[in-house]
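Journal club prep, shared notes

We agreed each person brings one worked example of a sequence with its structure written out as tokens. Mine is Acetyl esterase/lipase. I'm keeping it raw so we can talk through how to read the token line rather than staring at a rendered picture. Sequence first:
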Amino acid sequence: MTPTRHRGGHGARRLRAAGIAAAALTAALGVFALSAFHVPVNEIDPEPALAESEVVSPEIIGIRTFIPPSTIDVEADIPYGTRDDGTLLTLDVCSPAAVDGADPTALPAVVSIHGGSWARGDKANDDWRRVCLWLASEGFVAASVNYRLVPDATFPAAIDDVSLAVDFLRTNAADYGIDPARIGAFGGSAGGNLAALLGARGEGPLDTGSRVAAVVELSGPIELTTEALEADASSMWLHGIVGAYLGCDGGECPAASEASAISHLDASDPPFFVGHAEAEVVPVGQAERFAAALLTAGVPLDLAIVPGDDHSIGILDDALRTRVSAFLHTHLAAS
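Then the structure, token by token:
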């Protein structure tokens, strides 16, 4: 799974090195400040069993059918912020190979958000590293992010972290060859919830702050209110992970609506690609209601309901990858 690392010319190397140095300096200053107050600094590093993909089947399905090329440059564990609790946040950047002598061109970027019930998963497990490599192979600069997890952190920690990652990439766009006006988001399962919320929160232009210009969400639990979960006849498992994520022991959680992208939609929001399997662990009603709400809000939508019970990037087979890639190229194209 480890790709051959290729780099561009000397100018590209200097830009990349400058960006990493700046990020490292920022993180170091944050570490110093926290250390002064005796707060230990820790990178998110789940135990191996907790770092595994949310795709639990051992079968070669979905994103696992993608064969990564050897021409992707991967920069791992780039710090993008340090939280008050001492958590050092990092991301991996997968970039298309630069061609020596070619004119440098700022590329669209996609923030990749792993799943795992908001409580497990990792930006660099085999399945999500493959997502990062696939996006880069399609001509995007992909940034696979880690974010704080349950039980150490509950809502809104994860969405705040993901938003910070977008802001970091936009601020440091030149260092990674990114066009700051063309940043999208891709997420699956719990990461689909976060990608959708990232797209729906806020109003106005899609090229500032932590706004994104296109969203792909697969199998996301989108509407987290008790009413919505009960309408879907959701499993006790889904009720349980939602309650843990929202920091709520039972009943209606006060933060449920705030954590639901469907509650934030307006006509200024970016185009959405919503993908879901008919019989998977997250009820398909979540995708269907979200799609209807997007259309009502006047938000462009591409909806893909696929047969079977595979989940998240387990449904990202060649056919769906083709659709998702076309969606991202359409909506992140240069103006």
